[in-house]
User: Fold this.
Amino acid sequence: MKDEARIDEEAIIAMLMMRAKALGEKNAAEALSYEAEDSVEFSLAPPLVYYGQDEAGLQAWFDTWEGPIGGEVRDAKLTVGGGVAFWSGLMHMTGTKTDGAEVDLWFRQTLGIVKQDGHWIVAHQHASVPFAMDGSGRALLDLKP
Assistant:
């Protein structure tokens, strides 16, 4: 059983690395190939929830970036068992928007991952940033690990 768990962990990490590469290269079709068709996403951007895949919407967001989207992961943790897994970590997104704005943002991400037809895919994703607890409701976009 231990070998099976290790094989699953390695397969999930490989899938996540390929997905991250596709996201960084702004390849919407490739990025979505690692997600369930009926995925649920709680993104940093509105609305409150996305259901299913939206290749046109993802590509439109990619088109707001000049060049590749950079990234870094810290404090990643993967838990696997029984055909499901969850991954969590701190994500660092960097790059330049087409309007010249420089992006340097740390945020939290959790992924729910399922094994379908022998392949691991992302079925649920949640990204967030903390907000000030002083009553202002202000997003805290300058935090760093």
About this structure: Helices lie at 2-24, 28-32, 55-62. The longest strand covers residues 65-81.
